[in-house]
Every structure is written in structure tokens, then in C-alpha cells.
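User: I want to check something. If I give you two sequences, will you return the structure for each one separately, not as a complex?

Assistant: Yes, each is folded on its own. Here is the first sequence with its structure:
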Amino acid sequence: DGGGLGKPMSVQHRMRYLSLSKVLTSALSVKLVRDGRLNFDDRLVDVLHVNGPYADPRIAQVTLRQLLSHTAGFDRLKSGDPMMVPAPWCPKRPAQLAESRLDFSPGDRFAYSNLGYCLMGAALERVEERALASLITDELLQPTGLMGLVPVKNGVQQSDEPRLQIHPAELFDVLNGLDYDSMHATGAWSGTAADFGRLMEKIFISSPPDSLLDPEGRRLLTEVAEDCDIAKWRHCHGLGLYRYREEDGPAIYWRDGSLQGGTAFFAVAEDGQIVVWAANSRQPNWIPINDSIGRAIYGYIKK
């Protein structure tokens, strides 16, 4: 449904990338590391200049690497997601970190966290002394000529977006009330599916001088723990993506996204195939549906 009931979707429609936006954050982070401008093993509190005492002393142990790999200690299933409220404290009030409590010790396990990526964005802003949206534009988009990728604005649906289809069990007011200005590191970017694919090609596939990352940067962005079973779906996550491979197929690296009125999925295969899938709706039980989409895309890539 493009602009209203009965109007078809088009590949020219602007789609919300949702959590595919995190790939921009992780790719930018790796690029800065390869440029010698960032160190993944730096402590978050040092980068953000957040001094103790800390309500949870383990906060002082969190590294930038752990933020990207979702192992920093934040678990939204236990303590909620502070990014899904109208006025999140991150990234504008980093001092609040000193009052925060972790759900597990840093490095102990994986737990998907929007807050972790928001804090990574705040760290990038502090290191580079520039707004994250400007950093992403200058470092990733301008060099590739993909200036059509822009953040969603608070309370605004662009004229080139398809109409968002909100499930009756979910509320549009919740979606419309999100602070997208605080979500540039986590889920605010938009553009066509084709342009996202073109950007991923520059990050993962292209040869110099057209590539955004060198081979070591690509390795950093895609590697997962050596002992992780990549035959398990949604199981092995590195600094930017999940990795998955069936016994008789290629490895893929993937990320998905979901919010009211939107679903997104991206995969790049080790043989260079790239698939970007985006929709203007979702179901409340979105995780198994996204998993089905991902497995179907893997089947397509295998052929």
C-alpha cells in the first residue's frame, strides 16, 4: 500500500530502515578504528567523561566493543528499553549513565540492546566532536553519493514514504511519539531499499578506491566468536551483524529491524550477494515472522 488503500508499493518509496540503521553505526565505528581515531577497548565512562561514584560499579568496565556486540550488560527483557519512550536520557544526558544499573556483568553474555548502540553513538560524537548524523553523512554517505539516506524526523512522515500500516493491536501514537533525534545510532535512518543495498556494497563488497572499509575493517565488522555455532539462527552476533550458515550453503551476515508500521531485513553473503527487504507493516509477534523472512532470504541466496 503506497500512499493509501489500493495504491501499490514502489521501489522508489522511502522506507524506514529501523534497526538496519545500526549497521551504519557499526560500520562508522570500524572505519574510525581503522583510521586510528577510535579504540574498541576504551572504556565507555572514559570516552563520555562520566565520573563515579557509580550506582553499579560494573558500569566502569563497559567497553565500546561490548556496546557494539550487545554484551555490555543491558538487557531490555529484564529492565525495559529506555529508547522506546518519548524522552530517552540517551544520548543527550550521558551523566545518567552513572545512575544506571546493568542486568549482567559486561562480557558475560549477549542481550540485544538499543541503549548500548545509543551510547556507542554518543561515544562517537564525543570522540569526533560532531553530531552523529553529520558523521554518518560525511564518512559514509557523501563519499558514496548516497545523500538520499536521511534520518526520520520527529512526528513526520515524508511525502515519498508509503503509508505506514499499523496493526490494530498496536498504537500509532507510540510510534509517532518516539524521539527519532535520539535514535540516529539505533533506528532513525531512511531511504530506498536499493540505496541501502548500494551502501552495503560499498562497505562489504567494493574494491578500492570505491570501498569504505579495507579487508581488515570488513573482518572486524563480520567476525563472531570462534566457538559460536553459526548453524543456529539469531545466535552468533559480532560487532555489527549476525552470522549464519547451513552445512550446504554460504555464510551470510544479517541484521533485521522492526517497529510499529515497519519491518526490515538485510543480508550480505560471503559470495557477494546482497538482499535488502523492507515493508511498511509488521505483526505484533514480529520475531518469528522476521526469522521466517530471513530463512526465506537465505534459501534464495543458496540457489
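And separately, the second sequence with its own structure:
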Amino acid sequence: MSLTLDDLDALRRKTRDPIPVGELPNIIRMALQVRSPIVHLSLESLMHIGKRHPDIADYELLLLPFVIRHGLIVREKKKPKMILASYQDSMSSKRYLAAMKITSQQCEVWLDSFYRTKPRQTASLLKRCEILKRHD
């Protein structure tokens, strides 16, 4: 799956809402019993990311398919409908976290937030979450 700047622009212009931003690995989809592996991004969540994490540029959002496909994927123990994908970009060495929610009917997965993290935040994540898949 690919994500382009045109996709993000179409979402902002409201010509497409939502847009697909990634695909969960099949092993994760099956483990979580999610019907569709596609992760969706709504305009509302895109605006949230822009407001809460202004350091995230559009070109960094283009990493989402890689973060979701190749990152460390964990599930919060206290919030089983919340899954997180942690990924370190090999080019910039920056760490990112994609927070995703599974709908109550297990039908869809939605991106809730996307931001940069530090190594200690990843360590904290491992303490409070169940590992579903390690980095590729």
C-alpha cells in the first residue's frame, strides 16, 4: 500500500474522507480478529495530528504504511481496542508511534494519532503493552 501527498491533500480538501494509510500484517489481523486489514485516516484525526503534533510534516506521514507494516506492534493491556505501532526510520533515525483504534464491531481500524517518540518511551510501551509483532 502506498500513501502520497495527493492523498493527504484530497483528505484536507474533503474530496476523500477517510483515506487508507496502511495495511495491518495478516498475522495481526487474524490475532485481533479484525475483518479488514486496512487502516483508515479521517480528516478529524489528521487535524488532531496537525494540532497536537505540529512537528510532524506531511512527508513524515508518508511513512505510515511502513510504520504499520514493519514496526513493532503492541496492544495496550488496559485498552485492548488500542494498538500501537512503533518504528524507527532508517534514513533519519527518528522514532515514530502510530496509535490505532479497532472499532467495537472489529470491522475497521482507524489511525488515532501519529507522533515522534524517544527510546525511553518505547521501553515504557513494552512494560504496559502486549507484543503482537516485533519489528521486521
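Because they were folded independently, the notes below concern the second chain alone. The chain has one domain: 5-130. Helices lie at 5-12, 26-32, 43-52, 58-61, 64-70, 119-128.
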